[in-house]
C-alpha cells in the first residue's frame, strides 16, 4: 500500500511538471506575440506605450521586412526567381533576334510574344496568339 502512494505521488509530480512546462511555453509564446504585435503597423492595439516607433521615409529599414523574417526570405527567393526569368527572356531575345549594325539585337515583339508564349504556356486560354491577329 505504501508503495502505491509513492508511485502516485511521483506520477502527480510528473503531471505538475508537464503542466508547468506547458504553461511556461504558452507564456513565452504569448510574450513573443505581444512583442510582434507592437511591431505590427496593422495591429488594433492603439496604446502609445505599447506601440514602437516605426521607421520613417529615408530610414534604411523603411519599407523592408524585419531582418530574419519569413517575409524577408520570401523576398530574396522571389528576387532570385525573377532574376532567372529575366535571364531566360534575354536569352530568348538574343536567339530570335538579329544583330544590328550597332551590335544591338533587333526583334519583332510579336515574334517574341509568340516565342515566350510557346515556351512558358502549357495551358491554352482564350487570348492565345494562334491564328490571324
UniProtKB/TrEMBL annotation:
It comes from the Eukaryota. Residues 36-81 are annotated as: Disordered. GO terms for biological process: positive regulation of Rho protein signal transduction; positive regulation of transcription by RNA polymerase II. InterPro entries: Abra. Residues 37-49 have a biased composition (Polar residues). GO terms for molecular function: actin binding. Residues 67-81 have a biased composition (Basic and acidic residues). One of its GO terms (cellular component) is sarcomere. PANTHER family: COSTARS DOMAIN-CONTAINING PROTEIN, STRIATED MUSCLE ACTIVATOR OF RHO-DEPENDENT SIGNALING-RELATED. This is Uncharacterized protein. It comes from Chelonoidis abingdonii (Abingdon island giant tortoise).
Amino acid at each position: 500500500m505504501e508503495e502505491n502512494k509513492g508511485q502516485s505521488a511521483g506520477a502527480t509530480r510528473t503531471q505538475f511538471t508537464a503542466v508547468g512546462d506547458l504553461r511556461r511555453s504558452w507564456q513565452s509564446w504569448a510574450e513573443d506575440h505581444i512583442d510582434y504585435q507592437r511591431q505590427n503597423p496593422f495591429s488594433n492595439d492603439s496604446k502609445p506605450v505599447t506601440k514602437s516607433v516605426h521607421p520613417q521615409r529615408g530610414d534604411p529599414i523603411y519599407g523592408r521586412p524585419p531582418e530574419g523574417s519569413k517575409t524577408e526570405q520570401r523576398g530574396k527567393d522571389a528576387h532570385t526567381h525573377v532574376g532567372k526569368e529575366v535571364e531566360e527572356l534575354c536569352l530568348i531575345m538574343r536567339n530570335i533576334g538579329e544583330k544590328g549594325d550597332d551590335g544591338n539585337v533587333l526583334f519583332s515583339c510579336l515574334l517574341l510574344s509568340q516565342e515566350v508564349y510557346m515556351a512558358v504556356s502549357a495551358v491554352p486560354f482564350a487570348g492565345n496568339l494562334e491564328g490571324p491577329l
